[in-house]
Automatic annotation (TrEMBL):
Topology relative to the membrane: Single-pass membrane protein
The protein, known as: UDP-glucuronosyltransferase
EC number: 2.4.1.17
Pfam families: UDPGT (PF00201)
Signal peptide: 1-21
Family membership noted in the UniProt record: Belongs to the UDP-glycosyltransferase family.
Cellular location(s): Membrane
Enzyme class at the top of the EC tree: transferase
Organism listed in the record: Drosophila guanche (Fruit fly)
Reactions it catalyzes: glucuronate acceptor + UDP-alpha-D-glucuronate = acceptor beta-D-glucuronoside + UDP + H(+)
Length: 522
């Protein structure tokens, strides 16, 4: 009986396990390293499960990997250095949107112009893929690969949802409590902040539809003409099977999602930290009771390029502390380096944050760094530079596991006192531990979740049953503007009719009255 039951169980489960190995095309050409760091473990996990992954990216594997083929697009670096310096310059919102969108147009074009892409992917019928996975980041033209290969498409957003990501699956993000990333607001906004959020989002939306989409449309028609003749881009970018978000309610704030939008915040995190390299380990072990501070500004901002005055403030502060400091510094020499500071161009960040002797993380507040510090329960001092970093640092402050400083205006005293507060007052570390416990309490790891949903889409041929009907409505119908307009018109009609009748009646009554009066007088 038991045997029969388990046999039945196996039979029932069979369709789930019988998924054939799929051919997957992944497109992640963004030249900043953190985006690819975020997704590559997920792509490798798919390869390890037997799927054949072809990955268009800017950071090819150093060693060959089974079932994993790189198409390196190193051309994307050509325009990358400018964006890092220019994006912090003064711009109004329209210019800012143009600037960001132009950058993505350049990146998208670079993908289509790449020799290997042109030779192996673009010719119709040359290759086939069962699934397309793209970085959903303002690059609509290459969503065209879904039509080109007649395959379902999955988007990965490495910074969570925004209005543009929402439109891929018809998700609703009330502007009253879901802030635009770039505003730096949290989910609790004042009236003025809500006003700003509404206006900024509307401008971004208009800019995207009026300026950006026509260019993407052109690229799509130029490089994937056969697909473009069959399916318009505006249908493709509303037909995503799944969107995976590098976000989680325990990391940011709770919010609604449609069923094919799944949170996989911390996709890159491995749950088994590796031992530290020998020299770093010795330095960390030698820190005694005081412990270690880890300082890194991430992979884009170089701390060797910080103004000398800022660096001096930091060095003086570090020299005065009983803690030891690991500083990700991109030069061999750091003049005036105190003996309690260890510099290196690279650190195994997750393994360092996992170390019990590490007490504080001084960070630029990038999303991956923020998630890692929460995962390992370490308080942060945020020194944000651009984009979502301000928001991440503000959230850390709001949640109570960190504090932020403006690296441009802070004094040495600010820096020193903030570090001491974070180390001495226990609530910061306690809050970080609590956040960590909440974040880790999930039925499957983010990576397992991502793989499971990806295979779900494969098993159910694009899983069209998850797609909300809102995706087939136009703008007016979706927002019920047509209905509201009809009701308003109806109400207006009734009101006018009422006024008209009242006027008529009054006139009639008045006329009749005076008439009778006149009549009586006679
Ligand atoms: C939308 O996606 C589904 C599932 O992948 C697919 O069957 C359908 O053809 C797509 N429609 C368009 C217009 O691309």
């Amino acid at each position: 009986m038991l045997l029969l039951q388990s046999l039945l169980g196996v039979l029932l489960l069979w369709p789930l396990c019988s998924l054939e190995a799929a051919r997957i095309l992944a497109i992640f050409p963004f030249p900043g390293p953190s985006q690819y760091i975020n997704v590559v473990p997920y792509l490798k996990a798919l390869a390890a499960r037997g799927h054949e992954v072809t990955s268009v990216n800017a950071f090819p594997q150093k060693k060959p990997l089974k079932n994993f083929r790189d198409i390196p697009v190193l051309e994307v670096f050509d325009n990358y250095d400018d964006i890092i310096t220019q994006v912090s310059g003064p711009m109004n919102i329209w210019e800012e949107n143009n600037f960001i969108n132009e950058f993505f147009v350049d990146t998208t074009r670079a993908v289509f112009l790449n020799k290997e892409v042109q030779e192996t992917l673009l010719p119709p019928g040359k290759d086939h893929f069962d699934l397309i996975i793209v970085e959903a980041l303002r690059s609509d033209a290459y969503y065209g690969f879904a039509a080109h290969f007649n395959a379902p498409i999955i988007g990965v957003s490495t910074f969570g949802a925004d209005w543009n990501i929402d439109e891929l699956v018809g998700n609703a993000s009330p502007l009253s409590y879901i802030p635009l990333q770039t505003t730096g607001f949290t989910d609790r906004m004042t009236y003025r902040q809500r006003l700003t959020n509404f206006v900024d989002t509307s401008i971004a939306w208009l800019n995207y539809n009026l300026v950006h989409m026509p260019v993407q449309e052109e690229l799509y028609q130029k490089y994937l003409p056969a697909a473009a003749a069959r399916v318009p881009l505006t249908e493709l970018n509303r037909n995503f099977s799944l969107v995976l978000l590098n976000q989680h309610f325990s990391l940011s704030f709770p919010r609604p999602y449609v069923p094919n939008m799944i949170e996989v915040g911390g996709l890159h995190i491995s749950h088994t930290p590796a031992p530290l390299p020998k020299d770093i380990d010795e330095f960390v072990q030698g820190s005694g009771q005081a412990g270690v501070i880890y300082f890194s500004l991430g992979s884009n901002v170089k701390s060797k390029d910080l103004p000398v005055e800022t660096r001096e403030k930091m060095l003086k502060t570090f020299a005065s502390l009983p803690q030891r400091v690991l500083w990700k510094f991109e030069d061999d020499q750091l003049p005036g380096k105190p003996s309690n500071v260890f510099i290196s161009k690279w650190f195994p960040q997750p393994d360092i944050l996992a170390h019990p002797k590490v007490k504080l993380f001084i960070t630029h507040g990038g999303l991956l760094s923020t998630i890692e510090s929460i995962h390992h329960g370490k308080p942060v001092l945020g020194l944000p530079f651009f984009y979502d970093q301000f928001l991440n640092v503000e959230r850390a402050r709001q949640a109570g596991f960190g504090l932020g400083l403006d690296h441009k205006s802070m004094t040495q005293q600010d820096f020193q006192q903030t570090i001491q507060r974070l180390l001495k007052e226990p609530q910061f570390a306690e809050k970080a531990q609590q956040m960590s416990a909440r974040y880790r309490d999930q039925p499957m790891s983010p990576q397992e979740t991502a793989v499971w949903w990806t295979e779900y889409v494969l098993r159910h041929k694009g899983a069209p049953h998850m797609r909300v009907a809102g995706q087939d409505l136009n703008f007016w119908a979706y927002h019920s503007i047509d209905v509201i307009a009809t009701l308003l018109a109806g109400a207006l009609f009734v009101f006018i009719l009422f006024v008209f009748l009242l006027f008529k009646l009054a006139k009639l009554a008045g006329f009749g009255h005076s008439k009778t009066k006149k009549h009586k007088k006679q």
